[in-house]
Amino acid sequence: MSASPPPIVRLFLAAALLATALLAPGCRSGDDRAAAAARGAEALRPFKASLMGALKAGLAEGPVAAVEACHLAAPGLPAAASTEGVTVGRTSSKLRNPANAPKPWMKPLLDEYAAAGPGAPPRVVPLDGDRVGYVEPIGVQPMCLTCHGESLAPEVAAVIAERYPRDEATGYTEGQLRGLFWVELDAR
Ligand code: HEC
User: Fold this and answer.
1) Hey, which of 47, 64, 70, 155 would you mutate to test ligand 1's pocket, going by the most ligand atoms within 8 Å of its Cβ?
2) Has residue 79 been placed in a domain?
3) Is position 8 within any domain?
4) What are the helix (H) ranges across 60-174?
5) Residues 6+ apart with CB under 8 A from 176
6) Closest CA to ligand 1's atom 37
7) Contact 167, 175 (CB under 8 A)
8) pLDDT at position 20 over 50
9) Measured from the CB, is residue 63 less than 6 Å from ligand 1?
10) pLDDT in tens, 115-152
11) pLDDT band at 29; cut points 50, 70, 90
């Protein structure tokens, strides 16, 4: 029968455990986090380029054609830009396409970035199963207002209403947070 250690020893052990939990892996995971952020940013690059490409090609034909082009092309782009073990996407708290709805881990980040603004730095957060989530804020630029602004041209409003009957993604002004780019990837 081993007697349990005296309270002072137990306190010491608890403090030592807490320090190990907070400090030691913290240092290592700081490196892991920076590496994951770099891999996340890299994974987003082709996704952003393909989105911008579809948008600009559409806009060359006018905003109505651009909505149609986005409607056709945008939903397939995340899958095309995802690779094995690395999934990318976009989300927002005011959705145009319900397929872009935030997963549970993204919701608190949307709230935090809404408060901090789109200039806030990217973040890496732990997910289940040795995976991490990486997010980058998406800010509203002047060109976005054609389709996400406070007052849309009637023909643009009409095609959006037709394609996205439950659209919530208007009423934005320049510099606001529009949403997040996200990546799910292995922690290391
Ligand atoms: C020509 C119209 C048009 C312009 C300009 C435009 N968007 Fe969009 N946006 C859309 C459409 C249409 C969708 C829905 C795409 C889909 O079906 O996945 C969308 C979806 C999004 C989404 C995904 C979340 C959601 O609500 O479904 C984000 C984020 C977004 N746009 C940000 C922007 C930003 C930032 C800009 C400016 C750089 C911009 N958009 C410019 C039409 C536009």
Assistant:
1) 70
2) yes
3) no
4) 63-73, 77-81, 107-116, 145-148, 154-163
5) 118, 139, 140
6) 144
7) no
8) no
9) yes
10) 999 999 999 999 999 999 999 999 999 999 999 999 99
11) confident
